[in-house]
Amino acid sequence: MRPSRIQEVRPVTQRPVPDRDAVDDIVDQWAHQWPDLDVSPLKVLGRLHRSYLRYQSSLAAVFEEHGINMASFDVMAALRRSGPPYRMTSGQLAESALVTTGGVTLRVDRLEKAGLVQRERDAEDRRIVHAQLTDEGLRVINKVAEAHFANESQILSGMSKDDQASLAELLRKLEHSIVENQDPTA
User: Fold this and answer.
1) How far is CA 36 from CA 23, 24, 30, 32, in A?
2) How many helices (H) and strands (E) does the chain have?
3) Measured between alpha carbons, how far is 2 from 4 in angstroms, rounded to an integer?
């Protein structure tokens, strides 16, 4: 089944970015109350967190419209990206979705009950179980993916393509910095 035409993104009238926001106010309050405390990371991470909360809310609305949640979308999208026959083992899904195999099992259980995926034992090694999109699952993920990526395009439409590319690279560096600087004993 091929996905239908991707939905068009509505043009957004670009409004100027305000000179100040809530994060600026919080930083100023800290500076007033505790001048020697360096809260400059809040300028990045506070804004990242606030943006994430708004983004998460927008995603949840799209998924809810289609009767799934983020966890279901993660599994179904991984299966869809794998290509025909749209199947993977729990280990492959866990690696793709960055969750434990136990977490994948719960997600697949829910999707199987909804008729969106089915489990199938490997013909050569019966110990291996694959999760595979059903025809209905493929129809649903195609529809949801189109709505999801149109929504994400809409969210980013207030930024130029160059700004989006720069931000993407900076976020790659941020994730690398977080991973490199995590406490290995934690």
Assistant:
1) 18, 17, 9, 10
2) 7, 3
3) 6
User: Considering only CA atoms, which of 29, 45, 102, 37 is closest in space to residue 71?
Assistant: 102
Per-residue pLDDT of the chain (186 residues; tens, 9 = 90+): 444 444 555 555 567 888 899 999 999 999 999 999 999 999 999 999 999 999 999 999 999 999 999 999 999 999 999 999 999 999 999 998 778 888 899 999 999 999 999 999 988 998 899 999 999 999 999 999 999 999 999 999 999 999 999 999 999 999 999 999 987 765
Neighbours of 23 (CB within 10 A): 18
Sheet arrangement for strand 87-89: 87-89, 129-133, 117-121
Residue 149, token pair as written in the block? 């990526």
Distance CA 38, CA 66 (A): 44
Query: Please, what's the b/e burial string for 107-124 (b: 16 or more CB within 10 A of its CB; e: otherwise)?
Result: bbebbeeeebbeeeeeee
What is the separation, in whole angstroms, between the first and last Cα of the chain? 45
